[in-house]
Amino acid sequence: MAFRIGTLGAIVTERFTAAIVPLDLKPKHVGLMTLLEARGAASQLDVARAMGVAPSLVVTLADHLERLGAISRVRDPDDRRRQVLDLTDDGRALLGRCLEVTLELDAELTGGLGPGDRAVLAKVLGALAAQAGLPI
Amino acid sequence: MAFRIGTLGAIVTERFTAAIVPLDLKPKHVGLMTLLEARGAASQLDVARAMGVAPSLVVTLADHLERLGAISRVRDPDDRRRQVLDLTDDGRALLGRCLEVTLELDAELTGGLGPGDRAVLAKVLGALAAQAGLPI
DNA sequence: GCGAATCGTTCATCTTGTGAATGATGTATT
DNA sequence: AATACATCATTCACAAGATGAACGATTCGC
Question: One digit per residue, pLDDT tens: chain A, 136 residues?
Fold first, then answer.
């Protein structure tokens, strides 16, 4: 059975990217905030490793999120090399709006499905996320 | 119910991209070949419109596929502005190997699922593909 | 204390993609 | 038939996203 899941992944990604443009966010920003929400405060290097991304990219992402007021960024007093990131209340609110957008997209994409099918899809995607080590 | 389908889309896309590296292909190359397989020969502008991509990008993609011997590229004798692309036999074989890779990835991602769940997933993704106007 | 490792940042660079300019060809109007 | 306009492919300059190497500031092991 050929799902062509790769091509579909690209389409879904594209739609999601477009859907969060009004929030002034890119998918990686959402990924970073989601990570902070799930794990609590973390150093930039921790974030880079968890996201599978170069540390220099985290600088850029954190710059942007800090400018939006979505995260705080303070030197760890116990190790002043570390820059500790954490979600602000504004950040949590912003992440809430991301969730709304996500739900709308989910609804749009799975509109034709019955409740049973939706449950199965949720299970499948949950398993997929767990496999990817993703908080969901 | 939050599927976080956007984030998952990114993960799947990434995996697919990695999986076709050995074939010297990127996802868009596969998209172009799939299009030619489904619709038959097409001009570069047709391809650009169908893929939702700039015509100048099709030049690059076609250059690469032509170098691989996967597509032919001939001037339309009836309208010599048009450069007509078509899959070669080698291209069809290459696309076959892409399908194998896709099937392996599908199997890997849905390994823990029962046959009923897989059927539902196939249906859901099929509907999604149809909605995106994608041949599947 | 001193050399080595770690963390964040900057910088040069690569890749992917777009959009404008160009040249070749085709179409329409007169 | 000639001229103006539109269309197609191509090239070029450029923007965005991401990487890796170099560097400065720290901290750790000895």
Answer: 444 566 677 777 888 898 899 999 999 999 999 999 999 999 999 999 999 999 999 999 999 999 999 999 999 999 999 999 999 999 999 999 999 998 888 888 777 777 777 777 777 777 777 766 555 4
Terminal-to-terminal C-alpha distance of chain B:
27
Whether the beta carbon of B42 falls within 7 A of nucleic chain D: the reply is: no
User: Which amino acid, one-letter code, is at A3?
Assistant: F
User: Inter-chain contact A136–B27, Cβ cutoff 8 Å?
Assistant: no
For strand D, is any atom closer than 7 Å to the CB of A21?
no
Strand-pair category, A71-76 with A79-87: antiparallel
Q: Which residue is nearest to nucleotide C15 (CA to C1')?
A: B26
Question: How far apart, in whole angstroms, are the C-alpha atoms of residue A64 and residue A58?
Answer: 10
Q: Is the dihedral of CA A121, A124, A127, A131 positive or negative?
A: negative
B24: left (phi over 0), alpha (psi -120 to 50) or beta: left
